[in-house]
Amino acid sequence: MAESSSDSEVHVPAEIAEMIAGEQASSAAQENQAPNEPVIVFDKVSISFGDRAVLDSVSFSVNRGQTLCILGRSGVGKSVSLRLLMGFLKPDSGSIRVEGQEICELSEEGMQELRKRITMVFQNGALFDSLSVRENVAFPLRERGSLAEDQILQIVDRLLEMVGADDVAEDLPASLSTGRRRAVAIARALASQPEVVLYDEPTTMVDPIIARRLGTIIQKLKRQLGFTSIVVTHDMRFAKRLADVVLFLDQGKAGYFGPLAGFLASKDPDIRQFLVLDAYELPKC
Q: Where residue 269 falls among pLDDT bands split at 50, 70, 90?
C-alpha cells in the first residue's frame, strides 16, 4: 500500500461484486426478510465485568445497507458490543437479534452459521501467522468448497489488488505493518462473502494515509455492494466519512443514537466535550 495511492485507485472488481451480491441476494431470499426491517437490533442489552457495568440497557438498530459508527472514549464498551454480536460474549440481560433471530438462544453450531454471514475485522487482523497473505485470504473460500482452485486464486488476487496488498501476497503476516495487516484482514473478510462486516478500531495505530485508504475501501464496499457495516472508532474524522447513524456510548449508556447530523448538532455537554477533545490538535513546536 504505497503512500502515493489515491482514493480513485480503490475499486471493487466486477467479479468480486458479483460473487458477494449473489451471496447476499440468496441469503436474503432464504430469510424472506422485508428490506426495511433492521438487520441488527440490540434491545436493552446489559453486560457487567465484575462490579463494573460496561453496557447498561443499551438499545440500537442497523438497517440493511447502513453504516453505524459506535463512538466514545476508551473503555466504554464499543468493542464489547461487537463481541456480543459475534457471540464471543453473552449479555447479562436484553435481546440481540440478527434478521429477526434471537442470537442469545443459538447453539454454538447456530453461531457458527451466523458467523458465515457476519464477519469481523479485528484490530490486530487476527490472521493465521503460519500462512502467507494469499493463503489467509484463500482460507474462507476453500472452506466453502464450492469453487475450483484456479477460481479461488483469481478471486484472492483481485481482493488483494483491491486493498492494495497484492505486492505482499507471499509474505507472512508478522512481516507486515499494522495498516497492511488490517487491509489483508478486510480482504479475507470479503472472501467469506458476508452480509455484515464489523470493524474494530480500523484506524488505530496507522498513519493518516493508510487510514484514509481503509476508509475509502469501506465506503466503496457500501456504495457498490450495499454492505451493512458497524465501525467501532474513536476517530470523529473517520466517522464523518462513513456514518449514516451514530451510537455514542458514555458511562455504559447510549448517550445518543441517531443520524450523524443530529450527533454533530447535539447540545449535550458530554457529546460536545467529546467532539471538542477529538478536534483538539497539539501545538506545533
A: very high
- 199, 227 contact by CB (below 8 A): no
pLDDT digits (tens, 9 = 90+) for 190-211: 888 888 999 998 888 777 777 8
Give the span between the Cα atoms of 252 and 57, in whole angstroms.
8
How many structural domains does the chain have?
A: 1
Residue 285 lies in a domain: no
From the list 27, 19, 61, 2, the residue with the least C-alpha distance to 221 is 19
Q: Which residues pair with 53 in a beta bridge?
A: 48
Residue 182 sits in which domain range?
Answer: 9-279
Residue 169 DSSP code:
T
Q: Which amino acid is at 87?
A: G
Dist. CA 170–CA 5, nearest whole Å: 21
Residue 60 lies in a domain: yes
DSSP bridge partners of 199: 121, 231
Q: Which of 212, 236, 265 is nearest to 1 (CA)?
A: 212
152-172 pLDDT, tens digit per residue, is 999 999 899 888 888 999 999
